[in-house]
Amino acid sequence: MNDEPGQQGAPDVGEQPRGFAEEIGVEWIDLDPDGARARIEVSAKHLQPYGIVHGGVHAALAESLTSAATYFAVKEDGKVAIGQSNDTAFLRPVREGTIEATAVARHRGSTTWIWDVEIRDAEDRLCALCRMTIAVRELRD
Amino acid sequence: MNDEPGQQGAPDVGEQPRGFAEEIGVEWIDLDPDGARARIEVSAKHLQPYGIVHGGVHAALAESLTSAATYFAVKEDGKVAIGQSNDTAFLRPVREGTIEATAVARHRGSTTWIWDVEIRDAEDRLCALCRMTIAVRELRD
Amino acid sequence: MNDEPGQQGAPDVGEQPRGFAEEIGVEWIDLDPDGARARIEVSAKHLQPYGIVHGGVHAALAESLTSAATYFAVKEDGKVAIGQSNDTAFLRPVREGTIEATAVARHRGSTTWIWDVEIRDAEDRLCALCRMTIAVRELRD
Amino acid sequence: MNDEPGQQGAPDVGEQPRGFAEEIGVEWIDLDPDGARARIEVSAKHLQPYGIVHGGVHAALAESLTSAATYFAVKEDGKVAIGQSNDTAFLRPVREGTIEATAVARHRGSTTWIWDVEIRDAEDRLCALCRMTIAVRELRD
Description:
- The structure is a homotetramer.
- By secondary structure, chain A is an alpha+beta fold.
- In chain A, 18% of the residues lie in helices and 40% in strands.
- The longest helix of chain A is centred in the middle third of the chain and has 20 residues, at 55-74.
- Chains in contact: A-B, A-C, A-D, B-C, B-D, C-D.
- At the A-B interface, helix 1, helix 2 and strand 3 of A face helix 1, helix 2 and strand 3 of B.
- Strand 3 of chain C pairs antiparallel with strand 3 of chain D.
């Protein structure tokens, strides 16, 4: 990836979701790599034509959470975190309520982090699984 | 998937994107399974904090396109199409302009369709690859 | 999948690995869907040219285990289990000793089972992760 | 990946498949990144209990081919190629004959190559699709 994020563009610890994550209503609950969590309150804008949460919402929630949690873990080392791949499987449709993602970093390498993410509905039923691969790169000025 | 879409909820041929696809600005260009196409005009709401298009936008674009194209292909048989898995790899960051997805159905089984999707920027550079698996199920009344 | 396994071809509970699984030295330890386990004793034939276990061995171990465990769980219902997709990520190279896979069925649907598989070396370090999707179909006579 | 391949262990251009690739009967046809090809003559040892080619054989064929083709492309730069992830989808069972993989490098980055692989049977029917991600790293002495 030939991305060159500037320091102005980098999020600060404690900051709220911005950009697309904010747009779709992501809320951070916890960014600890041993059990990061975020959620979305489901509304009409998240649904696809059958009235269930669009798969892209699940994918985006998982990616927002793991990108942010990786970033906060590596930024002290002058590194940035950029999504490399997002593999999301849909198990159970969600029509309303909330979706909450819980992510565990399964691999924390010098160039790659791999996360397992579970997404559950308001009744704590497993609705989607995601494996996110995040590339960790030096911050280039 | 135990989804039970009603007939009212099913999209019609020629219809525009609705729900989350509309929310993020997806525009259909072509829904032919041999080369379906859709695009998004990139704006600030699609970006993540580094100023590049959020991976969830790529994933959602690919899923909207392939779900719709599968649906239109199988609806005459009284079937519905529901996303089963979305595996998206990010190759090149996009900062502005458009992203356009082109999708080819590689497998058109009675219970599963598998699509390969390429996403390119306004300069026709490959930016993301997606493999979408779409479950095809009987419409239950 | 248009496979039509005959009853003669179906494995029996308690049977040992056969065919390719036997060829590569898979040993069942446990086929319970809540924590199925299998292992391979690593020898020269499992390595790629750099002297590390070939990724295909990890993928085949995960697939053998989850296919068998799904099969044993659904065969009472007259169903068969066939691999649909195998997504394996390689975290740490293995040069010798054993690799042991532990698999948990995360989704047990009527048409699809989804498994998370961890593969660890003899020192219990995580070396590969696999998500297996297994199609469950009626046994056709 | 903390692999440290020695120079003795590195394959030479023109060399035949070794180790696990040789074990399962992989034959190189072409290692050009624009259309690499390899095949396996199917025999009893490649089958799973239902008499169809084991998914691990497809996965291993795709990985052998793309690892070798990446390696030959980057070795002049003093780099090595190591599998990072292998996502294989199974479309059509194969019972006999040959399986032949054709691979195209879709991304050739400084740290990652991404390949799309198609596997076809002797009648040229598409039987499996694989996306391989290969990490490219400096050869450490």
